[in-house]
């Protein structure tokens, strides 16, 4: 018969503790140490994912199409290929995504799932309002953003569990560790950047981890988060915060450290377009050769669906700008070397056309010289 005091039985316990403030002081810098960091980051994160695959029940991955979940899914799929674990529920890894029908997130998740070869399950988010009361009851918070994010996850977890799945791998924690939220663009210096990542990690149990844990466990589904592995956090938070900060001049975008760590041209974890591929674009696509990495990526998808030469000949090509025909390039020589066909490439053309005081010949339209050669496609890593 149990005689222990019930209040003592439910005292909170700290299972692991990371001294965040003691890290991030520039232990890992540039040059050799940066290469060493990349090596450690890869090994530790691979290990973090693999450790969480120890199970004897049917499992899958949550795949939103973003960098974090896509990377987790890629490592999982690669590791499980040819192992017994992959055959517990069919011969392929299963992935799950939820969203509004026709949303970009669902499209991105499908593209990553196709690349990885997973059995992909897509759930459409329709009855969110009806589930609000149940969501708040189970996640035990009134924080607006947490409730919004928890609702589709709550509904998806119910459907996942109905398929017989008992455990899922998820990508929470990366934004907090690497400063992936857009407001980190405004961080005034590396010290402020690092302190904010520390605050975000310490508050995870009130927000993203609260959602991931309770929205899934409400249906008896277990969520495992490899980004919050203790050993991985110890290394990731020891990186010089300067290397994590967004720097457009150096081509660093959100979570640049993580992107570069898994930028493997020979064995890519995610679909991408490299500089090497662009150099060979004219040989691969002699007709309407793509001139940007975005165009190259779209062309690869098109060729997968429509490999016939007759199909590619139906698409018009040639130099153009802002929805024009090739005539626009003849009319204004400043557009000749422009690679991007969008209207963004010719800012000022309307103003110059209607400026009565300055003749057009004396005031050419402004050409943006810093047009990026790549565009972030949700869920697809397009690297330089």
Automatic annotation (TrEMBL):
<dbReference type="GO" id="GO:0005829">
    <property type="term" value="C:cytosol"/>
</dbReference>
<dbReference type="GO" id="GO:0004066">
    <property type="term" value="F:asparagine synthase (glutamine-hydrolyzing) activity"/>
</dbReference>
<protein>
    <recommendedName>
        <fullName>Asparagine synthetase domain-containing protein</fullName>
    </recommendedName>
</protein>
<feature type="domain" description="Asparagine synthetase">
    <location>
        <begin position="44"/>
        <end position="189"/>
    </location>
</feature>
<dbReference type="InterPro" id="IPR050795">
    <property type="entry name" value="Asn_Synthetase"/>
</dbReference>
<dbReference type="Pfam" id="PF00733">
    <property type="entry name" value="Asn_synthase"/>
</dbReference>
<dbReference type="InterPro" id="IPR001962">
    <property type="entry name" value="Asn_synthase"/>
</dbReference>
<keyword id="KW-0067">ATP-binding</keyword>
<dbReference type="InterPro" id="IPR014729">
    <property type="entry name" value="Rossmann-like_a/b/a_fold"/>
</dbReference>
<keyword id="KW-0547">Nucleotide-binding</keyword>
<dbReference type="GO" id="GO:0006529">
    <property type="term" value="P:asparagine biosynthetic process"/>
</dbReference>
<dbReference type="GO" id="GO:0005524">
    <property type="term" value="F:ATP binding"/>
</dbReference>
